[in-house]
């Protein structure tokens, strides 16, 4: 099995090292990741300049672009074969709820999925993440399962792993994305040159964290696995909007 | 009606000037847009540095960040009142099909929607766009309609306008997003310093452009209006993935 | 006389608008400036990506690059004729003493000089600069003087103008660059995501601000004009270093 | 001896690894370098956002800023003691002649010098540089010499090393900077999205490469050592400009 690994924290991040190491047990791993931290990059693509591809001392490749750029470049311009799977992460911090649309970790997997490859995004739910090996092992379990029993449909999985020893995980729950409250307001600051600046604030707290959501699963010690799709059409609103537009 | 206007082509783009001018007929317009071209920015948020807000000679505000940053900063840190509507565009070029997830134009409207504001993204389907006034007028029609008969649910509309005179538009069609074929591969190049670089290639052609899609509507001269939602959960796959994970 | 105008504060800055307007009285002005604030850019050149050139509504051109890139691109790729002069500014804030090496304003003029064009950098010595017309007029006086009596050697002038009415300027002094004390230390901060960051601190105070320096001239109400050269060789140390290396 | 090491090619570059390894034989080495390739950065300082400092697996530190930022942050905010020396490099490619003002490698050393630390910039004169160990050894020879016989004046040395085995170096020459012809024009290109772009062209060929210059020394197989100063005042022109201004 050929596995393409990427992330949004940068090729030097401990989370991707743990992931690549764990996945090497089940497949041939190629790492292509951003040269710098691109957290919050979402699905952004670099269109106004070309990308460079370099190789680090440890064999990882890095690109002066976004997570989406990395997977796009690897699959359409660098690898000889389409990979059998794209795995993105292990992200430092959760990617749950509607916040998922900002995630570069999920975006790297989404790009794999758009290019026809089954893809998984893996995040460690922890602010002070230090040990990524448990989440890497969870990702490897899933990859191995793919190898043994391929899923018949194209699949894009968003996986969030609680920060606890592997033995203490309560199991796996397949979930829907929860909802968050609105984000916190921007935080005003002043630079040493006396200019006003604004930091983007924290994500909102969980608003829908009920049974069945990713928030709920993780809060109860389960690995959350959410199947994602990328069609943003609000099918349920088509009739009402048609009626409204026609009036 | 208070209208917040943004885009992804930058505050200096002719498309946003046309939009702001047209919308001024139906509401009080504030423009907050990126200081430079951020096409392809998707929903990326700037987390590793603070943002600056400046005011151009024509009264437009600009931010050293992404389209999402602009709306986020305007709504949570700059405007005294929540706007009644966010309108993003007029984008130079279509935002249709699954490509929509890369769009910064759509992302600006998405951020408005996430912050509780009815939002519209407007794009002109043209490679050599020169006249944005028709698309701006279409956006203004929709805004005025909101004013007269507010939609009862939160709404996020993705609007694509054919490049023809207003009188020659065939009407409005409410659509679903079509699908594209896979993107073209990256394009290899060599710099004057003899380094290999890669340009992201063109989007794929339309794969599902059948009746009911945005592609189909625009190809037939209609304005396409697609209601969007932002829940990426693939609800239809939850059972199958649960079964697969449990095996 | 053909005059190329650039700066480092960005093409939208009031200082460059004042300068272009004033210089239009003595020559044909073309503005090519950075698309965003590049203060502190020094002589940096963009080598890892290509540059784009755009035209704003007011006729100014802007480039997604540094001040040096702007002048380089204008002179070697855009203008039909070598300009007769490059004028950079009016910068918001002084460019005096050894700090001059960090200045993008001075760098734009330096690039003109390196390409064989007499060049002037103009800065307004003011933290809360609001009126750039006096400094623009001083620059225009110098340009006009060039026109009437060309200087026989290649020349690169660094001009700093006190922030006071034109009539209250004490005159012009030709000066040497003063020296500053070491810069202030970086200033530690914490982001909303709890990461430690460091802002570059303020420039040091004047250390050599004696008679004959730019600091001294400006402090006494004079326009300071410092002729610059770009040979960094420490000729006076060649013998001592030779002796040291040979031991 | 405490040695601060930086560069402009990025902390992952083979040139800095070779340099840090060689210098470890004569002192306690700390590496603080840019997180990505910043060739051409000159003395640019980052003023509009704060800097982050991270630590790579091999112990090197990296900063999301310029070479100047790295040395500035290390000396004024990170290190407990002022280093005894700053060594920058080994750069991939020459830094000779008037091109030196664009160099980020030289800029890192310049920032050390401005902060009161004897500093050396080291470059390998080679387009296809693969072995940086000879240049690293030359830098180490100089550092050791400093340790044994400190230079009595503040010193900033620009060192260029021919690409040949250590035993085949002809010796060391203390030189002045040569002069180059004007740079090549920008090179026009077209993006896949059909936009015109411009690459900065190559540096000009040597114009003054006579006896005594860095070009001449290196061409004859010598290590070139040029003492630099940072006062840009054109002292020799002060009288003529004064006369001209006064007319």
Radius of gyration of chain A: 19 Å
Poorly predicted regions of chain A: none
Label the CATH architecture of chain A: 3-Layer(aba) Sandwich
Assigned CATH class of chain A = Alpha Beta
- Write the CATH fold name of chain A: Stationary-phase Survival Protein Sure Homolog, Chain: A
* Mean pLDDT across all amino acids of chain A: 95
Helix tally of chain A equals 6
CATH homology-level superfamily of chain A: Survival protein SurE-like phosphatase/nucleotidase
Helix percentage of chain A: 25-40%
> End-to-end distance of chain A, in Å?
56 Å
> What is the count of β-strands of chain A?
13
> How are helices and strands ordered from N to C of chain A?
EHEEEHEHEHEEEEEEHEH
Q: Indicate the overall shape of chain A.
A: globular
Overall number of structural domains of chain A: 1
Most extensive chain contact?
Answer: A-B, 80 and 80 residues
Could you characterize the architecture of this molecule?
Chain A has helices at about 15-25, 65-80, 105-115, 135-150, 215-220, 240-245, and strands at about 1-5, 30-35, 55, 60-65, 85-90, 120-125, 155-160, 170-175, 180, 185-190, 195-200, 205-210, 220-225. Chain A has about 250 residues and is an alpha/beta fold. Chain A has one domain: Survival protein SurE-like phosphatase/nucleotidase (Stationary-phase Survival Protein Sure Homolog, Chain: A, 3-Layer(aba) Sandwich). In chain A, the strands form 3 sheets. The first copy, chain A, has a 9-stranded mixed beta sheet. In chain A, β1, α1 and β2 form a beta-alpha-beta unit. In chain A, α2 runs parallel beside α3 (about 105-115). The radius of gyration of chain A is 19 Å and the shape is globular. The mean pLDDT of chain A is about 95. Chains A, B, C, D: Its main location: cytoplasm. Chains A, B, C, D: InterPro entries: SurE (IPR030048), SurE-like_Pase/nucleotidase (IPR002828), SurE-like_sf (IPR036523). Chains A, B, C, D: Pfam families: SurE (PF01975). Chains A, B, C, D: Nucleotidase that shows phosphatase activity on nucleoside 5'-monophosphates. Chains A, B, C, D: Its EC number is 3.1.3.5.
């Amino acid at each position: 099995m050929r596995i393409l690994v990427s992330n949004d924290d940068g090729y030097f991040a401990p989370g991707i090292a743990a992931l690549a190491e764990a996945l090497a047990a089940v497949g041939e791993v190629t790492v292509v990741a951003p040269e710098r931290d691109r957290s919050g990059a979402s699905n952004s693509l670099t269109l106004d300049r070309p990308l460079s591809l370099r190789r680090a001392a440890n064999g990882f490749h890095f690109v002066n672009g976004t997570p989406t750029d990395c997977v796009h470049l690897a699959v359409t311009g660098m690898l000889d074969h389409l990979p059998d799977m794209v795995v993105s992460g292990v992200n430092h911090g959760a990617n749950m709820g509607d916040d998922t649309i900002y995630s570069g970790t999920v975006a790297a997997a989404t790009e794999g999925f758009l290019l026809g490859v089954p893809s998984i995004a893996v995040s460690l739910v922890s602010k002070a993440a230090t040990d990524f090996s448990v989440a890497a092992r969870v990702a490897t379990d899933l990859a191995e399962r793919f190898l043994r029993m391929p899923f018949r449909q194209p699949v894009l999985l968003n996986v969030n792993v609680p920060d606890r020893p592997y033995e203490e995980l309560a199991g796996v729950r397949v979930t829907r994305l929860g909802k968050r409250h609105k984000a916190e307001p921007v935080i005003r600051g002043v630079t040493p040159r006396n200019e006003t600046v604004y930091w983007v604030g924290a994500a909102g707290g969980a608003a829908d964290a009920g049974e069945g959501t990713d928030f709920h699963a993780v809060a109860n010690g389960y690995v959350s696995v959410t199947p994602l799709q990328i069609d943003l059409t609000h099918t349920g609103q088509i009739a009402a909007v048609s009626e409204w537009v026609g009036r």
